[in-house]
Each structure stands twice: as C-alpha cells, then as structure tokens.
Amino acid sequence: MPATVLLLFDIDGTLVSGATDAHRDAMHQALRDVHGVDATRAMRRPLAPAGRTDPEIARTILLDAGISAERIDDRADDVREQCCRAYARSRPEDLSGTVLPGIAPVLERLSAHPETKLGLLTGNYETVARIKLARAGLGRYFPGGQGAFGSDAEDRAALPAIARRRAGVVGVPHSRQHTVVIGDTPRDIACARADDVRCFAVATGPFAPEELEGADAVVADAAELGRLLEDEVARLTGAR
Questions:
Q1: Do residues 160 and 192 lie in contact, with contact meaning Cβ atoms separated by under 8 Å?
Q2: Which residues on adjacent β-strands are paired with residue 148?
Q3: 5-43 in b/e burial notation, b at 16+ Cβ within 10 A?
Q4: I need a labelling partner for 212 at 20 to 30 A (CA). Which of 67, 90, 141, 180 fits?
Q5: How far does the chain reach from its first CA to its final CA, in angstroms?
C-alpha cells in the first residue's frame, strides 16, 4: 500500500491574505482583559507577526509592557481563552475575499487524492484558525484532530512533531519522509528543519523569494505550488 503524504499548511500568507485585523484586535482585547495592557502603547518596537505563534506575540507585547515572565506563563491559558472568545464574538462573517488566488482548487485536488492527508500548521490558536478558515470557505479541507497550532506550543519549532503525532496510527507518528510543511516565512522553513521534514515556500506573504531560499523549493503562487505538491505526492507514493 502506498504511503500517505502529510501536507501541513500555514494559514496567513499561505492560504489567505488580509484576514488578520479581527485576529489582532482579539489578541489586543485579551491582553487588556487579562493583564490590563494596552498593546498599542506597550510595544517599544514594531512587531512583525508573520510566522510567529499567538503566544509568542502575546509574550513579546507583555514583556515590552513590563509584565514578568512568570506572570505571562501563569496567565497564558487565560489569554488564549479570552482571545478565542473575542475572535468568535467578532464573527468575521465572510473572509472568502481573502483567499489567495488559485488556492481553493489546489486544496480541492489534493484533498481528493487518496494518498494525501491535509493538516494545518499555524501559529494561530486553534479556535481562531478554525473560525478563520470556515469564514474563508476553506475549513472543509482540514479535518479536526489534525495539524498543530499556537495553542499547542509557543515555539513554532515544536509544531511539526505534534502534527505528525496526530496524523500517525497506533501511537506511531507519521513519518518525516512523507511530511511536507507549506508556508510563506523563514519561520515556517525553520520549524520544518527543526523536525527534519521537507518544506515548500510560497512567496505570497511578506517575504521575497530570495528570503525563502532555505526551503526545499520556492514558488511564486498557488498554481506553481499545486503543481509542485502534486509532483511531490507522486514521487513519494511511487506514482511516477
């Protein structure tokens, strides 16, 4: 029986673009509710969120505001819960306009392939990720119980191993050799490297192709990505 290929997709910049406003506002609301911190005033330097996990973003803001690491750790679950509740309340009804051109057909083809398993690998808290993709019309491609999220670990480097474990069977993680991370930032590449899995980068986020050269391959858009992934699935399953 051919091996199943696990494809782990980042969200922001990879599947959708411009879907972060309500997410950012929910995080800021959570920091006010839990720590009494105004994030817009607390940050001493610009914070580029691309590739960071939600808890990493929260920690950076809170440290700038003078909150101790111990207090941040003690209340991390409260921040997560409040952020997810705030995002759910904001109810971004339609995010279909944020879906990157060509990505839906790519997911449709890959999800129909009998030898692929799709999952998410994102710094978003899982509740935020699921709502965001549901509102974008992409949620059906990513089954529950799969993938890894910012709610699983603050360190993005820990996420691929978590996703492989969830995709495995009978306590055996999905194999590294049949796992690919797909993202748009150097942090996506770094987390794949930390788990010794392959990574394909797509230059649809804030980084230019030359900034993504650490990936196994870099493509310009969803059309190129789709062809690359179909070729990779064929290679790994012996279909060519």
A1: yes
A2: 121
A3: bbbbbbbbbbbbbebbebbeebbbbbbebbbebebeebe
A4: 141
A5: 15
What's the CA gap between 183 and 204, in Å, rounded?
9
What beta strand segments (E) does 147-227 contain? 179-183, 198-202, 217-219
The tokens describing 90, both together, are: 């904001």
pLDDT in tens, 198-240: 999 999 999 999 999 999 999 999 999 999 999 999 999 886 5
| 10: nearest Cα among 177, 192, 143 | 192
Residue 233 and residue 57: Cα distance in Å, rounded? 34
How far from the centroid of its chain's Cα atoms is residue 214's Cα? Answer: 18
**Computed over its alpha carbons, how large is the radius of gyration of the chain?**
18
Residue tagged 């690359």 (tokens): 228
Tens-digit pLDDT profile for residues 55-88: 999 999 999 999 999 999 999 999 999 999 999 9
